[in-house]
Amino acid sequence: MSKPFRAVKGTRDLLPKDTVQWRRLEAVIHDTMRAWSYGEIRTPVFESTELFARSVGEESDIVSKQMYTLSDQSDNSLTLRPELTAPTMRAYIQHDMARDGALTKLYYMDTLFRQERPQAGRMRQFSQFGAEAIGSPHPEQDAEVISLICAILDQLGVDNLEVVINSIGSAESRKRYRSELVSFLTPLKGQVSETSQRRLETNPLRILDTSDEKEQALLADAPDILEFLNEDDLGHFEELQKSLTQLGVDYRRDKSLVRGLDYYTRTTFEITSPDVGAQSALCGGGRYDDLIAQLGGKPTPAVGFAAGIERILMAAAEQKESSSGGVSVYVVTASDGARAAAAKLADDLRRTGITASFDTLRRSVKAQLREANRLSSSHAVFLGDDELASGSAEVKELDSGRQSMVAIEGIIPHFTTG
Ligand code: HAM
To answer: Please, how many CA atoms are within 13 Å of residue 340, restricted to the half-sphere of its CB?
Structure first.
C-alpha cells in the first residue's frame, strides 16, 4: 500500500475545531476595522518578484532567502507574497486611491508564504491581518495604528503583552548613525557571526536585531540612534510617545528594534508575548514614508502593522465557543417509513436557519441519540410511523429530559417563535 500523503512541511490543515476559533477572530478583526474606518483590500497571491526586492530589500532575510519564486511560461519572475505592505501599496498606486481622499485607511487578512525553518509559531504558509494608514505624516497616526492593534488583541483576550517602540529616523539621520555604528562594530568584527560580518558591509543596522546573546551583549554599548536623529525625527518620536500615553498604551523603548524589512522610516514597533515561546513577535510595523515613491507613486507618508494570526491564536486565552443559548435539533428517525419525513423536517428547519441534523447512516435510535449527544444538540425530535399516523411528535430537551408532544406542522414555529 502506498504511504498516505501529508501536508507539506510548514503548512497545516485547519479542522472544524480550529476554524470555529478562526472565525471568531476574523469577526473581531472585521468589526474593529470597521469601527476604526479601515476598508478591506484583497490582493493577488503572487506578484512580480521585483516588487518585493525593491520594497522589502534585496539584503533582507525575506528577499534573500525566504521567497517562493517561480517563472511563468513567459519567463516572468513571480513570487508568492511574503508580506502584504508592498502589494497593498502597489494596489494603492495602481488604482490611484489617493484620488478618493487625502487619507486612505486599508486593512487585509490573508495568507502569506515564507521559506523559513518551521517551528512552533513559524510556518511556511501563515496568515496575517494588518492595517495601513496612507497619507498622514503625523505621529498621532502612528499612535492610532498601535492603539488599533492593541484594541484587537485586547478583544481577543490576548494579555501579557509588551509594546516595544523605537525610531530609526529618516534616511538622512540614519546615514549619520550608520557610519557611527560601523566605527563601533569594526573593532569587534572578529567576535561576531559571519552573517553580522557580512551585514557590517551591507546593512549594519540589521546587526542590532541579532538573536545571538553574545552579540547582544557586545551591542549593549553600541551608540543609540536617538542621538543621531535630526530635530524633526526626534520631535516625531517624542510626540508619538505622548500620544501613546494619552491613549493609555503602555510601551517600552528598545534602541535595537530596527525590524528586518528595508522600507521603514522613523517609527518601528513590535508587540511581543512571552506565551508563544521563541517566536514571540505577534505583530510588527512602523512608518514607511519613502515606500510609495520608491514604487513609482507620488511621495506619500504611511504607517501600518501586520500581525500573525497563528501566533495570536497560540497566545489567546482558550475561549471556548459557547453552545448554550442556540437551538440545535437532532431529528431522530424512529422507523424506516419515517425516513423521508425526518429528512424533510431537518431540511425545513435548516432553511429557517436552525441547526438541524438527520441520520444518513440509517443507525438505531440509540445510536442516533448518542450522535445527538456528541454534537451537543439541544433538542431531539422523534419521528416514526406512530408519529406520522397521529400527526404529532415528541420533542425532547436533551439537557433537562423535559418532553412535550407537538403537532408536526407546529414544530418549526415551536423552535422559531421561542
Ligand atoms: P513582519 O514582522 O515580517 O512584518 O511580520 C508581521 C508578523 O507576521 C510577525 O510579527 C509574526 O506574528 C507574523 N509572522 C511573520 N513570519 C511568520 C511565519 N513564518 N510564521 C508565522 N507567523 C509569521 C511585516 O510583514 C510587515 N509587512 C508589517 C507592516 C505592515 N509594516 C508596516 N505595515
So the answer is: 1
